[in-house]
Amino acid sequence: MARGENNVRYTQASPARAATAVYVTLTAQVLSLGALVIFEQSMGRELAARLAAFGGRPVGADAEAVVGAVTTFAVLMMTVAGTSIAAAAAYVTWLVRARQANDRSAATGPVAAAWLVPGLNLFAPAVLVDEVWRGTRPPAGRRGRWLALLTGWWLSWLATLALVTIRLPLNSSAGGLTGVGAPELVCSLVAALLCAGTVRELTRLQREARDARLPGTAPAFAAAPAAPGAEASPPATISASATVPSSATVPSSATVSPPATISPPSSFSPSAVIEGPLATDSH
User: pLDDT, tens digit, for every residue of 26-41?
Assistant: First the structure.
């Protein structure tokens, strides 16, 4: 696989956008639950009493008197359910991408099993999140702070789950519509804030690790420094006259000296040449 394709896959696996979705859906969930609590505390008992007096099926003028309140209550319940499902989906998506940001071959099956298997979902999601944190190889000294944040989030989430699944059914005889109140809202708010804190911490660590692995961030190679007191030699240059000329041409920079001339001896004369042999014959 080409290097560019690896970079594209790694960018797609980045959990930054999924983390933003977690923040948005958690905020919507807390706001919708807060609106339901306000409605419950202000109109819940009265509306529940009217519905009980009408036998649960008001008709005629009685129906018109409560139809607005019943519609509002139904819309609030659907909003709370919808934002809760959206928050769960966003968080699972973020957790899958966070695991794949550390290991691209990480499967999605363990995440689904950790949240859906009864009994296992009481501790497995927190274990998976801690595994992702350790996979980012964070700097030393952050382990204690991280464990405190993770433990606070998970305990507040378990408290919210206990209030919704245990306290509300037991409190259904109090005369309200759902029984939801301030304890559920406070626990949900604390759990949402701590959950967002864990997501933000992990996303920041993975962003730092990704930036450190991006090409072009490594320092350039520098020449070795010269020894103290030594003079730096200038860089070698190649001149045009250093080129080797071909056998057929003479380089322009070369100079051709004229051929040497042989001058005759100063004492040479024709008479000396003639007189020499004649003088010999005469003897």
Answer: 999 999 999 999 999 8
